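Appendix C. Worked example: GNAT family N-acetyltransferase
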Amino acid sequence: MGYALEFFDDPHAFLAAAEPLLSAEPVRCTVVASVTARHARSGDSARPVDAPAPWWVVVRDEAGVPVSAGMRTAPMVPYPPYLLAMPEEAAVLLARTLHERGESVEVVNGYVPTIDVFGAATIALSGGSPSETERTSLYEVTELVEPPAVEGRFRIAREDEVDLVQGWFDLFGPDASEQAGRVDPHPAIETRESTRGRIVAGDVWLWEAPDGTPVSVTAFNPPSFGVARVGPVYTPKEHRGHGYAAAGVAAISRRLLDEGARVCLFADGQNKTSTGVYLRLGYRPIAVTGGLRILAG
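Step 2, the predicted output written as structure tokens:
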């Protein structure tokens, strides 16, 4: 079967073209749907001026039906593409097309085995060798299991706390890699401006100890095609072991479920601490995703 690629530089046009796919598989498409929706709401206002222009792609089958999609919207170096699951032939076609467009790909994120096929095709064209950065699972919760009660309160982050939240977001990657026993660091997850935008939107919450000290952060992406995604979740080392992360994730999940959304999150399979928390809360794995680094030859 032959496949065709349709590229977009306008998130609104992409959402319209990809709607049949995104609405049919809203949980599995959560990253593409929520990130694109954020671009549609705010444009490039939170994007560094030196970052390349974002793009989106729809994969169509011979009948013109959307069967997969991808995007290159990450605001941080090396600007990795994110790919939904797609047929091998389509993944190879995308790798070849990006090569012909002169786009260098050092890291690719998304669904397994699509990223492995894409990586192998990219290496065949440009040289290099593959190095797995992480393997994560996509989890969904339908019946939330309440965790033990924790002292303190859960509150929305204030705009004057952007430096605190950004500092914790910056630590999330290195700490997640350390907990998972990896050397390759987790990529940065937010810029300061994107963090500010999420705080202003009310999508970042803090667990506050009884003395008023913030001790943990839980963020979420608001529903897109009926699916909300929790994350990132971070507790500094000095505050771990008290149940703050579980309490925060439970509170956000409960709120989103009560509002009628389906709720999901990603967790690193090698990080037994975080996956244990999510499993105890009732989250269950439904798909495997990850990242692949292409090392220079």
